[in-house]
Every structure is written in C-alpha cells, then in structure tokens.
Design a protein that fits this description.
This protein is mainly beta. Helix content is 0%, strand content 41%.
Length: 198
C-alpha cells in the first residue's frame, strides 16, 4: 500500500505494509515505526521473493523478512535474508530507484548480522550475495558483495550497533538494484544477513 503526497517538491513515499506481514515495532532495542513510514529519498518501491534451484520457480520455503525496512528512512530498522528454511532457495530483494543511477553515482548498502562482530566481514560470506543492476527488465550488470568497498564504519555514527557501510561505483545506467543470496550451498545458516539500508 503506497501513498504519494501531492506535494511534488517533496514527494515522500509513505508505506503501510499489511498487518499480516508482522513488521515489528522494536528491533535490537530500537523503537521502529512499523506503519505509515517514509521510504528513503532514493527508493520508489521494493519487491522480494525467492526462487527454487530445483524448479526455477517462486517458492514459499524461505524469503526476505521485513523487506520495506531495507529501504525506509531509518538506519535502525532492517530486513533479513532468512536462510534457515533450506539451501535450495535463492532469495532476492529488488529496489526500484526514483531516478536512473548514472556513472559517478555510488551504490551503498548498510548491513549487519546477528551475533558476529561486523568488523570481521569475512564471516558473513559476502561472496554468497550478489547485487544485480537492471534497466527496466533488462539486467545490465552484477557484482558480488565481497567486491564492494567497506567505508568508514563511523561514518554514520551508529548508536552502539555493529553495522558496515559498503559501496561500489556506478558504471552504467540502471533503475533497479537487486540484492540476492545466490550461492545457497555455502550459506552459514546461523548468520542471517541484516540489510539496514539500500
């Protein structure tokens, strides 16, 4: 359920996920607005789901949890890649940008996980996650998360929570960014990836 206010000078996009999705009002001790919340200024909408390696069709066995929290205007809320339901499902979170990304721009993702010091990013198996870039329905590039550059961890002065900001330069023109767990065989099932912001 998306609502775009009439004021085109400041076109905030407000999201009210269905109650059935169970968006929490508290994550890691932080109070989170879980209805009628604003998306970040770069994102128009988000879609999510998963595909079965066996059938190459959408599957209900596992999926991204709280996907709108990865693109809201709050660095304390997060979506989760739920890796506990089986290794044959590839999950994705696809963000629609408000305008085309062009060379000179940067793609930045804020991420973390449960129970791991984020300073040791190697434990997150970032090679198992890929970012794909689309212009409309056409894929125009991809890069695994381990190829992103880690920015200054103190850049956003996070409030006592271990998070990392990773960044990659834009080399083409695209309007969708898709984060996906693609190498499910090697995923550490005990460490769910938390996506705070795209």
């Amino acid at each position: 359920d998306l609502t775009v206010p009439c004021d085109e000078r400041n076109p905030d996009i407000i999201v009210n996920p269905p109650a059935s999705l169970g968006y929490p009002s508290n994550q890691k001790g932080f109070t989170i607005i879980n209805n009628n919340f604003k998306l970040n200024p770069f994102i128009q909408d988000v879609t999510w789901g998963n595909y079965s390696e066996v059938l190459n069709v959408a599957s209900g066995l596992s999926s991204v949890v709280y996907p709108y929290y990865a693109v809201d205007d709050n660095y304390n809320s997060y979506a989760m890649f739920n890796s506990t339901a089986g290794v044959l499902n590839k999950q994705f979170l696809k963000a629609k940008l408000r305008r085309d990304a062009r060379p000179g721009d940067q793609v930045q993702i804020v991420l973390g996980t449960e129970g791991i010091n984020i300073l040791n990013l190697g434990l997150l198996n970032l090679v198992n996650y890929k970012v794909k870039f689309f212009k409309g329905d056409v894929e125009v590039g991809s890069i695994t998360l381990d190829r992103f550059k880690v920015l200054d961890l103190g850049l956003l002065q996070f409030e006592g929570v271990q998070k990392a900001i990773i960044s990659a330069p834009v080399s083409g023109i695209f309007d969708y960014v898709q984060l996906e767990q693609w190498n499910t065989v090697n995923v550490n099932l005990g460490n769910q990836l938390h996506v705070y912001d795209i």
